[in-house]
Amino acid sequence: MPVLSLPRRRTVLALAAFGTMVFAAHPAGAQAAWPTKPVRIVVPFAPGGTTDILARAVAPELAKAFGQQFFVDNRAGAGGNVGAEIVAKAPNDGYTLLMGTVGTHGINRALYPKLPFDPIKDFAPITLVAAVPNVMEMNADKARALKINNVADFVAYAKSHPGKLNMASSGSGTSIHLAGELFKSMTGSYMVHIPYRGSAPALLDLVGGNADVMFDNLPSSMAQIKGGKLKALAVTSAQRSPALPDIPTVEEAGGPALKGYEASSWFGLLAPAGTSPDIVNRIQQEVAKSLGTPAIKEKMLAQGALPSGNTPAEFSKLIASEHVKWAKVVKASGATVD
Q1: Which of 33, 220, 289, 328 has most Cβ atoms within 10 angstroms of its Cβ?
Q2: Helices 312-333 and 175-187 meet at what angle, rounded to 10?
Q3: Residue 64 confidence (pLDDT)
């Protein structure tokens, strides 16, 4: 074997050392920097509802943090299942996220006989964005005409006029639907359920007088309540909402029949299963940081939302517990998908 001359030998050694440094900086299997292109946040309901409001609140904050556009893509249908399925089957590269809800990841598994995705196995929880109470509300003109001033008045009328009132919801199987079904089962009342493709179109019909009552997520109804178009009868949480401190809970206002009633909602970011933990953790940290700023925090609280930003592990634990809780509610209420 020929012996290398000294200069040539130094060159070979230098190249070998450079190659070692490159390999160390970019080990096998390492992902390229993320994000290098826009990130889609799928909202599984129509624009204008609370899911959409919260997604559009965090999207610009993430865009500022990561230097890429985070855009909202509304994909409504089947109680949120259409949008959730899109994300469950998307590449796990961090460029498709879901603003999931208590419906898509807590209720639907118990309500739908067959889901096109597994809400646990097919997703990587990132963070809970916010929890909100629902609000039992009526078209204000209809409430005045029927002399319904509170929950007790409503129950009395509904029981003496079965089927005369209709109940709007953001879709079959959503927390808005289930909150109403639980109310019906506990009071022995009957209202005709009218499912919509999101909270916003349901609210339009409620304000317009084409629907009578709704158990809507508080943030999407707040403006209409403050404006007098809707009459808030009660909030569905265990405690009163700081945003509507004078409005009682359903349990407070409903008497013995509604003791223990509670049906709140939550909204959080998820990615397809297998998404890099580094990407998941980076998103969670930036969401938590933005939710902690006075401007975002005060805006959410004013709308009736309680900001969170918890860790992926904490969010995962919440989702698992919600499956158990809502399976019991679905069974007790006898709710079905229309």
Answers
A1: 220
A2: 40
A3: 97
